[in-house]
Amino acid sequence: MFMVSVSAYSQTVSMTGTVVSEGDEEPVPGALVSVKGTQKGTVTDIDGKFAIQASVGETLVVSFIGFTTQEVVVSADATDILVTLGYETSDLSEVVVVGYGSQVKREVTGAVQSVDEAELKDMPVSSVAQKLQGRMAGVQINQTTGKPGQGMNVRIRGQLSVSGGSQPLYVVDGFPITGDINQINPDEIQEISVLKDAASTSLYGSRAANGVVLITTKKGKVGQTNVNLNVYTGFQTVPENGRLEMMDAVEFATFKKEYYEAAGQEVPSIFQNPSQYKGQTNDWYDAMLRNAPISSYNLTVTSNKEKVNTAIIAGVFDQEGVVVGSDYTRYSLRMNTDYQLSDKVNIGVNVAPNYVVDNTPRTDGTRGTGILFNALHTWPIMPIYDENGELTSFNQLPASTGNIYAYPNWVRAAEEITNQTKEMNVLSNAYVEWKPIQGLSLKSTFNAEVNNSKYFWFNPSTATANINVTLPTVAVSIRDHYSSLSWLNENIATYATSIGDHNFEILGGFSNQKFRAESTRIQADTYADDRIPTIQGAININRGGTNSGVGEWSLTSLFSRLTYNYKGKYLLTASVRGDGSSRFGEDNRWGVFPSASAGWVMSDEGFLNTSSTISFAKLRGSFGVTGNNNIGNYTSYALVNNTINAVFGDNVAPGAAVTSLNNTNLGWETTAQLDLGLELGLWDDRVLFTYDYYTKNTTNLLYAVQIPQESGFTNYNDNIGEIKFWGHEFSVNTVNTTGSFRWTTNANLSVNRNEVLELADGIDRVYGSYHITQVGQPFGQFYGLKKIGNYMNEEDLASSPIIPGRSTVGSIKVEDINGDGVITYGGDNDDRTIIGNPFPDFTWGLINNFNYRGFDASIVLNGSQGNQLYMRHLYSTANLDGVFNMVEKVSRRFKSPEDPGDGIFGTSTGGGNVTGVERDWNNSNFVWDASFLTVRNITIGYTFTKLPKTIKSLRLYASGQNMWIFTKYWGGSNPEVSMQNDGNGDGGNLSPGVDLAAYPVPRTITFGVNVNF
C-alpha cells in the first residue's frame, strides 16, 4: 500500500509501500525499488515495506529475482495501491545469445543452453569453466588437476579427434579467441551460451566441430548506475579422506623384512624390528601440502544513461596453492563502452587487460619431473627434518639396506626451485554500427588479442627434483618468451522485417583473421653463484635446449543466415559458411559448412493451446556440417631442418635436410550432425523438460599416417578415417514451491558414445602407451593383459597358460586371449585386449536453489558413472621389488598359498623377473572404476533490507567448493584426473584417464560480502 504526501511547490512525492507475492500475498523482502532513469533506489525490508521519494509522472520499477518486474507510474493521488509481483516460472521469453546475434528462447531451433551471472555467483574459483560444472546437459567439464588457475578439460557432446583436440571454440563478445578462458575474470561475465549442434555452430564453420561457447561480458542496465563490490576470502585444504594411502614406517619396514626373508636373504638391521618405527612415520606427501588462503576482490561500476552505456570491472584474484611453493595471482580490468552517436549510428569499444603471475613447482608426472609424485615414493623412515628442525637436503641409507635410490628433500625442492610464468593478455573489441533504414543494420567490428608470456625455471645447485641425483648438482635455468597477436575484422549486414504473420531475418558477412606468434627459449647451466641466475652468470649455454620460432596462420570467411517464423510457431533457420585456411594444402584450402534447422511450437496449435497441463511444447530438428582445423601450422608443407651438419672428408659443413613430406590436398576435418529435440513446459511452465538426441560422424580425420621407412620418412599428414558419435541429453527445471519459501531444481543427464568406423588404408588400430584406438571400438580404450587372479599353487601353475621363464606361484595370472597356451605380450596377435574404458556411461548434474525471505541457499552436485582410470602410479607405488614406498594395499599381497592376500597384488618372491611383469606389462590390475558423486558447491547467503540510503543492497554469504567426493576409486583424491607422463596437460584424446598422482583438488571454504551502491 502506498501512502502519498504531495508538496505543493515541487511535485515531489514521499512514498511508502509494501510489495507482496502473487497468490499468497506474502511480503517480498529485498525487492529493488528504483526510479526509472535515475540513480534513486531502495530495497524492501523484512516485511516487504519501503520508502522512497519521486516526482509525479516518474515511474517506479519494482523487481526481484524469480519474479516478474512491475512498473508503477507516480501520481499525486496514488493511495492504497498494492504492488504484487508474479512468479517468473518460465524463462522461455528470455533473449539468449546465439552466433552473430540473439533470439527469443522459445524461437531457437538449435541445441543452445545458457546461464547468466545470477546462476554463477559466489563460487570461489579462478576459472569460468569451474563454475559451469554440472550445469549443462551434454557439457562434460573435468578438473584434471588442482593447480591454481589450471586444469579444466571441457568436452561438448563427447566430441574428440585423433589429433585435432577436443576443446570447444570460445567466443568473447563476438571475438573467437585463440586460447581458453582460464585467464578471464569470472566476475566480468554477464551470460554464457553453449552451442551444441551443427545448426547453432555452423556459422563458426571450420573451428566449430567441438562446439562453441559464447561469452558476453557485462553492460550497464537501462536507466541505472550501479556500483558493486564483491569480496570473498577463505582457505583451502586437502582432506585426509581420499588421499592415496601409502605404507607408514612400520608397514614399510615390515614389508622389507618379509621381502628379504621370502628371498632367503639376510634382513638389514634397520628392518629387523619394524615396531621401532611406531609413531615415527615421515609422511613426505603430507609435508608437501599446506592449508592455503584464497581471496578475490572485484569492483564493478555500470551506467546506462542517455546515450552512453559503460561497464568497468576491476579485479584481483589471489590463490596460494595447497602444495608448498605454488601460488597464482591475477590482476584484471575490463572497460566496456557503447555510445549512441545518433538515432542511426552506434559505436563501442571493449578493452580487457589482465596480468597473471603463476608460480607452480613441477609437481605432476613420473619420477624425474614430478616432485609430488616423487614424495609418494620416498621411504617413510627417511627424515624430513634434521635434529635442528631444519629441512634435510639429501637422504641415502647405507647400501646394505638394498636401497638403490637416493632421495633429495622434496619440500626443499618446492621452495628453492623457481618455476614462474608471468603473462600479460589484452583482449579488445571495437565496432561501428549504422542503421540506415528500419530493420537494417550494418556493423563492422575490429578485434585484437595480444599475449605476452615470460617463463623462468631455475634449479639451483642446492636442490633437485630428481631421484638419485646427488647434491650439490649443476644449476640450470630455462627462459621462455612467447608473444602472439591475433586480429579479426568482421563486417556484417542484418535485415529484419515482417510481412503480415511472416517474420524474416537475413544475415550476411565476411571476415578476416590473422595470427602470429614468436617464441624464444634459452637454456643455460653451470652457474658460479646461485644468487645470480642471469644468462651472463652461466658458464654454458645449452645449444640443444636453445631455440626460437615463428608461427602464423590466417583465415578468410564468408557466411550467411536466414531466420524465418510464421506466427512464432513455425520456425526455420538456414545458414552457410565458407572458410579458407592457410593451414591446409594449396589445393584444398576452402571448406563449406551448411546447416538447416526447423521448429514447431505445438502448444500454439488449437489442439494444445487450451491444455491445462501442457503450457509449452516445441519440436525441433537440425542437420549441419562443421569443421576442425586444429592441426598446427605448416603441416601440409615439406619442412626443412637447417641445423643438420654434413661431413666432407675430414671437414664438417653446415647443411639442411627435408624432414617431412608436403600434402597439397590436406583439408578440413568435418563433422556432420543430426539433432532432434523436444521442449516441454508443464503446469504454467513450472516444469520445463528438454530432451535431445544427436548423432554425428567425423570424417577426414587429421592424422600423421605411418608410411614405409624406405621413403626416408616415418609419417605423412593426411585426412583419414571416420568416427561416429551419438547420445542423449535430458534436462529438467522445476519450480517446486512458491510463496515466501521458494525452491527450484535444475537436473540434467547426458549419455555420450563414440565408435571408430575407419582409420587409414591397411591400418585398423593405433597404439598408445596404455591405450588402443581400434576400428569397431570407442576411442582411446585401455589396452593390456586381462588379469584373472594369481597362480594359487603348483597345480594351478602347471595347468594354466604361463609366461615362460617368469610365471611362478603367486605371480599375476592373465587370460590367454589368443588361445595358444602361452602368455605373450607384444604384436597385433598377442594376449592383450581391451581392459577398460575411460569414458563414462553417463554424466549428470543436480542444482537446488532455496529462498526464504532474506535467506538464500544453493547446492550443486555433479557426477560421472562408469568411467575408469588407469592407475599409472602403481608402476612404482606398487613396485614389489621394494625400492620405493608403496600403497598400503601391498601389505595384503600374495605371500603363500595359505596366505593369498586380497587378490590385488601378487608375490614379491622372484625379483624383477617376476614382479616386473606385474609392474611393467599393462594389465587390468591398473584399471579401476572411477565413478563419482561430487558436492561441487554449497552456498548460503543473507540479503539485508534495513540499510542506509547510500546502499541499495547488502548480502553476506559463505561458500564451500569441492566439499565432498563420494567414489570407490582408491588411487587418489581426484577421480577426474587425466595426465601425460611428463605431467604437462592431460593425456589427450588417444590417451585419456591416466592417473599419475596429480596435484590434488582442494576443498575451499570462503566468506564473502556483496554490496550495491
In short:
It is built from nine helices and 52 strands.
Tags for this model:
single chain; 1013 residues; mainly beta; 22-stranded antiparallel β-barrel; 5-stranded mixed sheet; 9 helices; 52 strands; 48% strand; globular; disordered N terminus
Major β-sheet profile: 22 strands, antiparallel, barrel
**General shape:** globular
**Could you tell me the number of beta strands?**
52
Give Rg in angstroms. Answer: 32 Å
Range of helix content: under 10%
Distance between the ends: 26 Å
Strand content: over 45%
Average the pLDDT over all residues and give the rounded result: 88
| Count of DSSP H/I helices | 9
Q: What would you call the structural class?
A: mainly beta
Q: Low-confidence parts lasting 5 or more residues at pLDDT below 50?
A: 1-10
Write the layout of secondary structure elements.
Elements: E1 3-6, E2 12-21, E3 32-35, E4 41-43, E5 49-55, E6 59-63, E7 70-73, E8 83-85, E9 95-98, E10 101-104, E11 112-116, H1 128-132, E12 139-143, E13 152-156, E14 169-172, E15 175-176, E16 189-195, H2 198-201, E17 212-217, E18 225-237, H3 249-262, H4 284-287, E19 292-305, E20 308-320, E21 327-340, E22 345-359, H5 371-377, E23 394-395, E24 407-408, H6 410-416, E25 418-434, E26 440-459, E27 476-499, E28 502-527, E29 538-541, E30 547-566, E31 570-581, E32 590-601, E33 614-628, E34 640-648, E35 651-658, E36 669-682, E37 687-706, E38 715-737, E39 741-758, E40 765-767, E41 771-774, E42 781-784, E43 787-790, H7 794-799, E44 812-814, E45 833-836, E46 842-852, E47 855-865, E48 868-870, H8 874-877, H9 912-920, E49 927-929, E50 932-944, E51 953-967, E52 1003-1012
Parallel strand pairs: 2-8, 14-17
Antiparallel strand pairs: 1-2, 2-5, 3-4, 3-6, 6-7, 9-10, 11-16, 12-13, 14-15, 16-17, 18-19, 18-52, 19-20, 20-21, 21-22, 22-25, 23-24, 25-26, 26-27, 27-28, 28-29, 28-30, 30-31, 31-32, 32-33, 33-36, 34-35, 36-37, 37-38, 38-39, 39-46, 40-41, 41-42, 42-45, 43-44, 46-47, 47-50, 48-49, 50-51, 51-52
